[in-house]
Amino acid sequence: MSDDASDNQKWLARFKPEAARHLVELARGLEHLHPQTLVKPTNLKATFEEIARTNPKLRELYRLAHTLKGSAGMVRQTEVAGLAEQIEKNLTRVVFDPDCFDEELRRKLLNLTEQATEKVKQIGQD
After folding, report:
1. How far is CA 53 from its chain centroid?
2. Whose CA is closest to 87, among 111, 51, 104, 103?
3. From CA 57, how far away is CA 38, in angstroms rounded?
4. At residue 7, does pLDDT exceed 80?
5. Contact by Cβ (8 Å): 87, 26
6. How far apart are CA 124 and CA 4, in angstroms?
7. Using one digit for the tens of pLDDT, what is the confidence trace for 82-122?
8. What is the 3-state secondary structure (H, E, C) of 61-92?
9. Torsion 46-64-33-108 (CA) sign
10. Residue 5 has pLDDT above 70, yes or no
């Protein structure tokens, strides 16, 4: 095995359990996120971070998706990165417009999370 392939295997071995933990936390957080508890932004000219601070649970879910997207990209897990990016984009939308978070969007986000979980489980099984 070449050094590059060996290094990639080492990174994948680190990535897989970390990604699995992030996805469990993401799914759990989405299941417990309630639309009525989300605070609507009052200053629409505020930055993403300023607005996200008003909804710490939502901010944490966004951070998990963002971290997963970046780490998946670094280990060339493009499908996982793509799914995480979709989650991230939808959560960004919720940060700016909490009213858009409904059961349909929750189901969509949970479905994307489950798809990513399945992709992560398949790492190293080929």
Report:
1. 17
2. 111
3. 9
4. no
5. yes
6. 16
7. 999 999 999 999 999 999 999 999 999 999 999 999 999 99
8. HHHHHHHHHHHHHHCCCHHHHHHHHHHHHHHH
9. positive
10. no
Query: Which residues are CB-contacts of 88 (< 8 A; sequence separation ≥ 6)?
Result: 62, 65, 66, 69
Smallest Cα–Cα separation from 84: which of 59, 56, 114? 114
Tens digits of residue pLDDT in 23-50: 999 999 999 999 888 888 888 788 888 8
**Structural tokens at position 48:** 């993403």
CA distance 124 to 5: 13
- Written as six digits, the tokens of 22 are 């992030």
Could you give the CA distance from residue 82 to residue 98 in angstroms, rounded to a whole number?
23
- Residue the block writes with tokens 């959560």: 91
H or E stretch at 103: helix 103-122
For residue 39, what are the contacts with CB-CB under 8 A and spacing of at least 6?
A: 54, 55, 98
The pair of structure tokens assigned to 4 is: 């590059």
Length of the chain: 126
